[in-house]
Amino acid sequence: MALWLSIPYVAILGPFADTAAAEEQTRLREMIIAADLMPYKKVEAGSDLYFLDLASEQFVSFQRQFAGKVVFANIWATWCKPCIREMPSLQALHDRFSDRGFTVVGMNDERRERQRKFLGTYSVTFPCLVGNVEDLAFRWRNSVPETYVFDRHGRILGYRAGSQDWMGRRVQELVEYLTTQPNGK
After folding, report:
1. Which of 139, 122, 35, 30 is nearest to 80 (CA)?
2. Helix, strand, or coil here: 108?
3. Distant-in-sequence, close-in-space partners of 102: CB < 8 Å, separation ≥ 6
4. What's the confidence (pLDDT) of residue 149?
5. Cα separation of 38 and 34, whole Å?
6. Alpha carbon 166 to chain centroid distance?
7. What phi-psi label fits residue 41: left (phi over 0), alpha (psi between -120 and 50 degrees) or beta?
8. In angstroms, how far is the first alpha carbon of the chain from the final one?
9. Continuous H helices in 35-160
10. Is it the case that residue 103 has pLDDT exceeding 90?
11. What are the backbone dihedrals phi and psi of residue 158, each rounded to the nearest 5 degrees, phi first?
């Protein structure tokens, strides 16, 4: 992992930061808040995660599998009513922006058969990973649903504990912004 990936958010906005970069970081933070997300305390890459891909039945590296993409990682459960409510808007967001380097990734630790049945019932086609979500180091708390926003470099930008309508205008503006940044910045 490159050293600059672990620089705390405050360091990026420190006294020696270039004004344009500081303004850009402030704008991004405001967009995250406007999308009803909490800015992550440190803009840094999460450690690599290995999960079973539900579709391929192969273990995949989260960082390699989704390298260069903006990712909304959604931790969900089949028994969770708020998860069920937000699934259609997560799928719609994935469908709307998937051709622009964006994906929603579902993460769940339930039995695969149970997940497949649920995903089929709700017509979910975005990638889903199976594994122990309780031990994810970046998690704010252990509840469902939780959604984490990663930029193209794998840095965690923000999160949401609880469900929401992911097709809201501010969320779409955030995804549009993140997917159109030059060099994925």
Report:
1. 122
2. strand
3. 69, 70, 71, 72, 93, 94, 175, 178, 179
4. 94
5. 9
6. 12
7. alpha
8. 17
9. 62-65, 81-97, 112-121
10. yes
11. -165, 175
Question: What is the pTM assigned to this prediction?
Answer: 0.83
Average pLDDT for 120-148: 81
- Do residues 142 and 4 lie in contact, with contact meaning Cβ atoms separated by under 8 Å? no
For residue 61, which of 74, 48, 72 has the smallest C-alpha distance?
Answer: 48
**Residue 37, Cβ neighbours under 10 Å: how many?**
22
- Strand 50-53 and strand 128-130: the pairing is antiparallel
Token code pair at residue 74: 């959604």
Read off the tokens for 146. Answer: 């939780």
Q: Mean pLDDT, the chain, as a whole number?
A: 84
pLDDT in tens, 60-82: 888 888 999 999 999 999 999 99
Tokens of 79: 């028994």
Share of the chain above pLDDT 70, in %: 80
